[in-house]
What does this fold into?
Amino acid sequence: MKLPPIAHVAPRRLGEAVSRLADAPPGQALPLAGGQSLVPLLASRDRTPRLLVDLRDLGELTGVGEHDGFLRIGAMTRQHTLATHARIGAAAPLVAEAAARTGHASVRHRGTFGGTLAHAAHPAQLVVAAYALDARLLVSGPGGARTAGLRSLLAGPGLRHGEILTAVELPLRGPGSGHAFGQVAHPVGGRPVASVAAVVDTAPDGTVLRAEVTVGTRVSPPTAVDVTHRLRDAGAAAGETVPTGPGQPQRQGPPAAYCRHAASVLADRVLTEAITRARRPGAGAPPAPSGSGPDAPPVPTRETP
It folds into this structure.
C-alpha cells in the first residue's frame, strides 16, 4: 500500500523539531526516527498526519555515555549499534542481546532505540529488554525537558503533544548480576509472538537476592513479575500475565493460549540462564573505560543514514 501525501521537514536543532511538532494540531505532526515502526502505520492508514518531522539530522540525539550511575544512549542510536557497541555490550548486555535478535539486518541498520520505545509494540525485543531494566526516558517538549520511567510511561498516556524522546538511561548493574533474553517468533516474517527477559542479582555465595521476569506478547503489554521467592514456578507466574479469557480482543496471529504457553516455557529457560550467568566470576561488573564516569561526555557513534 502506498503512503498518503505527507509534508516532510528535517530540522537541524532539537528546539526547532519540538516547535514544529507543538505548532501542529495533535496527531497532525509526527516525529520520524528510523521509520521501521511508523512507516507501516502510515501505509495502513493507522496514522494520518499531515507533517513528518524527520530527526535524522539531530546529532545531539546520538551517542553513548555514562551519567550518575546510568548508561545513557541517544534515542537516535540505531539498533545495529546497540547490538555491536562495546560499551553497551559490557554495561547493558540485555539490550545488546535483544537488539541482535531484532528483525533483519536492514531493519537494525535503520531502526532506532527511541523509535522502538516510542511505538512500544507489546512483544518488541527492545521494549521488553528496556522494561526489564526499568529504563528511564529523557524527553524534551514545549514545556522543557523531563525524565519519565518507561514503565510508568507505558502505563499512562505516553508522550505528550510536541514531545520528543531524546535519550534512554539504563541503570548500571553491580557484581553478581545476570540477565537472559528469549523469544518465540512467527515462522513467517519472524515477528516476535512472545519475548521474555530475566534479570537477577546474587550474593557472593551465589544466593539469589532478587529475580524478576518481564513478559511481553502479541496479546499482552510488557509486565514484570518478581519471582525471587518463586524460582521453581517462575514459568507459571510469567504465564499468568497473559490473559486468555473470553474478553480478550481478537488479533491476527497465534491465539492467547499459545502466547501464554510460550511465555511460561521461555520464563523458566531465561531465568535459569540468568542465574547461571550471575554466578560466573566477574558477572555484572562492566569495565570502566578511560574517561568514563558521571561527568564523562557521551561517546559519539557513527550511525547508518
The two ends are 24 Å apart (CA to CA). The first strand starts at residue 7 and ends at 9. The longest helix spans residues 256-278. Residues 196 and 215 are 5 Å apart (CA to CA).
